[in-house]
Give the backbone structure.
Amino acid sequence: MHTDDAVFLEDLCPKFRFRQWRKSIHRFTGKSCIYCGKPSESIDHILPRSQGGLSTTENCVPACLSCNGDKSDENAMYWYRRQRFYDPRRAMAIRAWLEGDLRLAIRLLQWANPNYKNNNPKENKTNFKAA
Ligand SMILES: [Zn+2]
């Protein structure tokens, strides 16, 4: 597909663009729930739509269905503080995400979750040694 065609297709079909956007949100956290670290299956609004929250990247985080359903339309910061799996590093990550600092948010999530799949080989400590 040519790049021009892709742009054309997105203009014709907003659903396609929406799907791409959802995918990119999940990719930021390596497809894990920002609250508990389980696989993310949905997009959650930090500030719920019922309270005027917008569907922007800053206000939308990857979440598992369990967290998303349990949180319902509460403010994520208040809801998250009461959870058993509460982790202050994740709380900081959620705040950074909300402020639009996704790089910081991802760093904090990596810190909170040592199993996070690191895509940067330079930071990978298991280097091969030359024989
Ligand atoms: Zn979760």
Remarks:
- DSSP finds six helices and two strands in the chain.
- Residues 3-113 form one domain.
- Helices lie at 3-12, 14-28, 65-71, 76-81, 88-98, 102-112.
- Residues 10 and 16 are 6 Å apart (CA to CA).
